[in-house]
Design a protein that fits this description.
This protein is α+β, with helices and mostly antiparallel strands and about 100 residues long. It has a single domain, classed as 2,3-Dihydroxybiphenyl 1,2-Dioxygenase, domain 1 (Roll), CATH 3.10.180. The strands form two sheets. It has a five-stranded mixed sheet, with helices on one face. A two-stranded antiparallel sheet has the order 2-3. It is elongated and about 45 Å long. The two termini are about 15 Å apart.
């Protein structure tokens, strides 16, 4: 699955579990990792989601038993075709593509 992120910001209970989820199901990798400068102990990662083939990606995620929350939705004048999954922490993540 080829994909690219624009950006993603999530508050999760287990950073390592969320990283594992995205690496396994979206083939994304952490490109930067930072600790919160204000001393809260919060850790921040940037993962850098537009996919080349939306139907193929949808089929792959379904085959891996990833929960499809909404869609797929067709292309409209203002947006590409897309669908939304629910990740391991309950967040809704939208995939766009052709």
């Amino acid at each position: 699955m080829n994909s690219r992120w624009t950006h993603l910001a999530l508050h999760v209970h287990s950073l390592s579990a969320s990283i594992a989820f995205y690496e396994r199901y979206t083939n994304l990798r952490v490109i930067e990792r930072h600790s919160d400068a204000s001393g809260t102990g919060m850790e921040v990662i940037w993962m850098g989601l537009v996919v080349e083939n939306l139907n193929k990606t949808l089929a792959e995620l379904k085959a891996r038993n990833v929960q499809i929350a909404f869609g797929p939705y067709p292309t409209k004048a203002e947006t590409m075709s897309n669908f939304i999954i629910k990740d391991n922490a309950g967040y809704l993540i939208q995939f766009f593509g052709k």
